[in-house]
Amino acid sequence: MPTAIAPVLPRHEEFSIEELIDAYQKGASEIRAAIEGMTDEEIAAKPVDDMWSTLEVVCHLADCEQFFADRMKRTAATDRPELMEVDGYRYNDAMDYQHHDLEEELLLIEATRRQMARTLRLLPRDAWNRVATLSDLGTLTLRHLVLHAINHVHHHLEYVKEKRQALRRG
Questions:
Q1: 6 pLDDT exceeds 50?
Q2: Angstrom distance (rounded) from CA 44 to CA 54
Q3: Model confidence over 45-91: pLDDT tens digits?
Q4: Selection from 122, 119, 139 nearest residue 131 by Cα
Q5: 3-state secondary structure string, the chain?
Q6: What does the alpha-carbon distance between residue 145 and residue 124 come to, in Å, rounded to a whole number?
Q7: Summary mean pLDDT of the chain
């Protein structure tokens, strides 16, 4: 599995808060669109060596959504919180992702993003400059944390795309 990704920070100031929230909330529908039309067998398949199935990717995303939402809420609500680093790649085997329910995982992502987007829209503008410390990335603002969540989905959807292409060739 690839290593954890850092948030894409360059030029993040160019995006308005509304654009960031919209992009964040849109992530749930982007996941659904990426797997649309796949059969249960294709969702569970591992057509690329040493890579997770699409189901495992979705489960990873669902678990990470919980971490991201907690980080964003704690940053918005507390002074300079120290955020816990989580190695989401260790969860796959321990949680037996391959036997989870795809729709349940998708609904969790959608509900988390919808609730968090509402929360973000209610925050005062200055909350977006609040900072937190994440052990491996250093000091980050709420804006960076939202970008990290957006980028995380896009990062993993590239793997879903790769799996779909491998299944077509297969």
A1: no
A2: 6
A3: 999 888 999 999 999 999 999 999 999 999 999 999 999 888 777 88
A4: 139
A5: CCCCCCCCCCCHHHCCHHHHHHHHHHHHHHHHHHHCCCCHHHHHCCCCCCCCCHHHHHHHHHHHHHHHHHHHHHHHHCCCCEECCCCHHHHHHHHCHHHCCHHHHHHHHHHHHHHHHHHHHHCCHHHHHCEEEECCCEEEEHHHHHHHHHHHHHHHHHHHHHHHHHHHHC
A6: 16
A7: 90
Could you tell me if 62 and 105 are in contact, meaning their C-beta atoms sit under 8 angstroms apart? yes
CB atoms within 10 A of CB 150: 22
Taking a C-beta distance cutoff of 8 angstroms, is the pair 146, 11 a contact?
Answer: no
CA distance 8 to 10: 6
Instruction: State what percent of residues in the chain have pLDDT above 70.
Output: 92
Q: Which residue has the higher pLDDT, 149 or 135?
A: 149
